[in-house]
Specification:
The complex is a heterotrimer of chains A (about 260), B (about 260) and C (about 260).
Chain A lengths: L1 H32 L11 H12 L2 H33 L2 H14 L8 H8 L3 H25 L3 H9 L4 H38 L5 H10 L3 H29 L11
Helix pairs in contact in A: 2-10, 3-6, 3-8, 3-9, 5-6, 6-8, 8-9, 8-10, 9-10
Chain B lengths: L2 H31 L7 H12 L4 H32 L1 H16 L5 H9 L3 H25 L3 H9 L4 H38 L5 H10 L3 H29 L1 H11 L1
Chain C lengths: L1 E10 L6 E11 L4 E5 L6 H8 L7 E6 L2 E2 L7 E4 L3 H4 L6 H6 L9 H14 L15 H14 L4 E5 L7 H18 L2 E6 L2 H7 L2 E5 L6 E6 L10 H4 L1 H19 L5
Parallel strand pairs in C: 3-8, 3-9, 6-7, 7-8
Antiparallel strand pairs in C: 1-2, 1-4, 4-5, 9-10
Chain lengths: ~260, ~260, ~260
């Protein structure tokens, strides 16, 4: 009986969750159909999804999605290859850290999009521009997280390693690096969304091929239903990537105090 | 001189010296390179002084910052309000959950064409887009902060009959404030990014417009001066928020430090 | 004045039910100092939270002056064990104490007087504008006591208030509580796991059993007033009483498997 009760309550929660989404969708549909919102700007939800399913059958849609993801993966990958070793290098030496701290603090807050004109100038409107911007933006969160991770090592753990006469290299590989992994995971999650933002920005502003450019084209062409459909697609991509990294983060973080009792 | 002192002096010298060395390196290289893309640093600085001190402040910098402030302000107020409601009510959290998850997952620039379609290319569109994008970090952090209020504090409030708005003002919000600030920090960076992009895509004034226009007309030194200005603004805005946070959350840091003592 | 009547509290449902309190009854008279003592994990805190109206009982009731407690009554002040978490770190000592007074319709002068008197009676006059985190643990608990006193409660519920301070501070705070109880003429229910503390402070001691918890024994403490940390504890009656309570708890424990 208790089991049945629990299930019923679980069902109640599930129903609440989807009731919210359903209500918003129905209200939006009605507002558009009745003309409460101008149909030119707010097409009915059903039409958005019709456009979305139509797009799913078009090769250009899959090409654009692939191009956006290509910019994202290259941007994040290159940023990780640069930022993680740099963070490790700076995080393992007080001298190196202090030498570059001010430089980092100055470069980090520069809005990456300020470099859009430079990217156009040097790389043109293609993939390189997109990747350059994504790398620049994704580099900083990863660098900072790696640095924190290297510095936030439990001193007792280091002393323990010392007491057991581990060498400096062993201390770094056995104690410091494992401790930094959760931080790097968090950095990857943040940088992943930043890289996606910059990929779409480049497509939108510079006109690099990808979903961002298609969204803008839909706007210029007055295809409001397609515009909304493509925004929904980018949202789903962002949500999917974020969930993927969040799940990975939970896995590598399972031993960390912040996760205990947090389920 | 003892070694500890010598080390301290070395560190300070490095901390000041390396940035200067980087600047000097850029200076020497850019003067010598005579590259089209990378004009000499002194040229950039002269152009910076000519352009931004203070000729274009009124026409470009002020409108940009005003839109940024408006969008950011709306986002903070709305984010705290909605975040508080969601934080206090599990039902509201479940109902709004998927919508919030989706809303924050949309890459911010993708909202620009939507804003332009519905609101045109004026200030309203830019403020709207900045506000929508900045909303999510503040909202989500507020939810976490409100949910994380210490149960003993809430019990204290109940025992002493502190309820309603009083409970929000005196207990829930102060307690959630560190998290709210964390959200605001993220939002501020996003606000700056959206300010620039919105001006690049749809504007005839503003810093973003100026930078892109300079590039299109091959005024490379002007373009660089704009990039430098955006860097300086980013730095100053972050520093200002950090300063505010330090003052407002003095109790938070002190309480943390005393808990670790 | 306060009546606990067949109080039961059950957590969870179905197979994972735990009975924390089972048919627990006792009374507290006007102006009395009652200590509740029991083995650790016996639901002392649950009991006190039910008495304060923070937790609804599964069955039975708590009544205060004949009225059944459904939510926190206005006549109750509460001192939590976790002083560092019940004081607001963003408020000064003064504002922490004044916080509950804001909605009592008092004049500004009256409010200031209540706060300052309470601070003085716990011996923190010089620290009124400090923040909680600038004070030691013992001093923070004094602030929590002052907050409860300034609220002018008729009954003060204290949940293991001195469990996390050192021994010397603890003795000072015990004497402080005895003194302010006289000054303010307040009824006190004091929960503790420390048998010495219970016997030293109480007019009566309520001994609880292991869960499902009920009242094992209620013991009158007829030690001479005023109590004194050295002299009272040297009395043969004191030793006798604490041995009695100790055996009562111990005997009951031996009847059930060790936890």
């Amino acid at each position: 009986m208790a089991h049945a009760l629990r299930t019923r309550r679980g069902l109640g929660r599930w129903a609440q969750t989807w009731a919210g989404v359903a209500t918003v969708l129905v209200l939006a549909e009605l507002a558009s159909r009745t003309g409460l919102l101008p149909q030119r700007y707010f097409p009915p939800v059903t039409e958005m999804f019709t456009a979305l399913f139509a797009a799913l059958g078009e090769p250009w849609f899959w090409l654009a999605t692939g191009q956006t993801l290509q910019g994202w993966v290259l941007g994040l990958g290159i940023a990780a290859l640069l930022a993680v070793p740099a963070g490790m290098l700076l995080g393992t030496s007080v001298v190196r850290y202090r030498a570059f701290r001010a430089v980092i603090e100055f470069l980090r807050p520069i809005p990456s999009v300020a470099l859009v004109p430079l990217a156009i100038l040097v790389y043109g409107a293609g993939l390189e521009s997109k990747v350059f911007l994504a790398v620049f933006a994704a580099f900083w969160p990863l660098l900072i997280q790696t640095l924190y991770g290297m510095q936030d090592v439990d001193p007792v753990a280091v002393d323990t390693a010392r007491a057991f006469r581990l060498t400096r290299a062993e201390r770094i590989t056995r104690v410091v690096l494992p401790g930094a992994v959760p931080y790097v995971a968090t950095g990857l999650r943040i940088s992943s969304s930043v890289a996606l933002i910059l990929a779409v920005t480049a497509e939108l502003v510079i006109g690099s091929p990808g979903l961002g450019r298609e969204i803008n084209a839909a706007r210029v062409g007055g295809a409001a239903d397609l515009l909304y459909a493509l925004i929904i697609v980018t949202g789903l991509i962002g949500w999917g990537l974020n969930s993927m990294f969040a799940a990975a983060e939970r896995r590598v973080l399972h031993w960390h105090p912040s996760q205990r009792g947090a389920r | 001189m003892n070694p500890a002192r010598r080390r301290r002096i070395l560190l300070i010298a490095l901390e000041a010296g390396v940035p200067l060395a980087v600047l000097a390196g850029w200076w020497v290289w850019s003067v010598g390179a005579d590259s089209f893309y990378f004009p000499a640093l002194p040229t950039i600085l002269t152009t910076f002084a000519d352009t931004w001190l203070f000729e274009r402040v009124g026409s470009d910098v002020v409108p940009s910052l005003a839109r940024l402030a408006a969008g950011f302000g709306i986002a903070v107020v709305a984010g705290v309000a909605i975040g508080t409601a969601l934080g206090l009510s599990p039902v509201a959290r479940r109902v709004a959950g998927p919508l919030v998850e989706f809303g924050r997952a949309v890459p911010p620039p993708a909202l620009l064409p939507f804003g332009m379609l519905v609101l045109g290319v004026g200030d309203a569109m830019k403020v709207f887009v900045i506000a929508v994008v900045c909303l999510w970090p503040v909202l989500l952090n507020t939810v976490d902060g409100v949910r994380g209020v210490d149960p003993t504090m809430l019990d204290t409030a109940r025992v002493y009959g502190i309820g309603g708005l009083e409970r929000l003002r005196r207990i829930v919000w102060p307690s959630a404030l560190p998290q709210v600030f964390a959200g605001m920090r993220t939002s501020l960076s996003l606000a700056l990014i959206l300010m620039v992009i919105s001006e690049m895509v749809a504007s005839t004034e503003g810093i973003g417009y100026f930078v892109l226009e300079s590039q299109r007309s091959f005024a490379i030194a002007e373009m660089w001066s704009g990039i430098v200005l955006l860097g300086v603004l980013g730095y100053l805005l972050n520093a200002a928020l950090a300063l505010l946070e330090r003052r407002v959350l003095r109790w938070h840091r002190a309480a943390l430090a005393s808990a670790l003592r | 004045m306060l009546e606990v009547n067949g109080l039961s509290k059950t957590y969870g449902e179905g197979e994972r039910t735990t009975r924390a309190l089972a048919e627990l009854s006792f009374t507290v008279a006007e102006g009395e100092f009652v200590c509740v003592v029991g083995p650790s994990g016996c639901g002392k805190t649950t009991l006190l939270r039910c008495m304060a109206g923070l937790l609804p009982p599964t069955s039975g009731s708590v009544s205060l002056r004949g009225h059944v407690v459904a939510g926190p009554p206005e006549q109750v002040g509460f001192v939590f064990q976790e002083y560092s978490r019940s004081l607001m770190p963003w408020l000064s000592v003064r504002d922490n104490i004044a916080l509950p007074l804001r909605h009592k319709r008092l004049g500004k002068a009256e409010r200031t007087r209540l706060v300052e008197e309470a601070v003085e009676s716990v011996g923190l006059t010089g620290f009124i504008d400090h923040f909680p985190w600038e004070l030691s643990g013992g001093m923070q608990q004094r602030v929590a006591i002052a907050r409860a006193l300034a609220y002018e409660p008729e009954i003060l519920l204290m949940d293991e208030p001195f469990a996390s301070v050192d021994a010397q501070t603890r003795a000072d705070l015990e004497d402080l509580v005895l003194r302010v109880r006289k000054d303010y003429g307040v009824t006190v229910v004091f929960v503790t796991h420390d048998i010495d503390e219970a016997v030293y402070l109480g007019d009566r001691v309520v001994v609880l059993t292991q869960p499902p918890t009920t009242v094992q024994e209620v013991l009158a403490v007829n030690l001479p007033e005023p109590r004194d940390q050295v002299e009272t504890k040297e009395l043969p009656e004191f030793a006798h009483l604490r041995a009695h309570v100790f055996r009562a708890i111990k005997r009951r424990q031996e009847l059930r498997p060790a936890t």
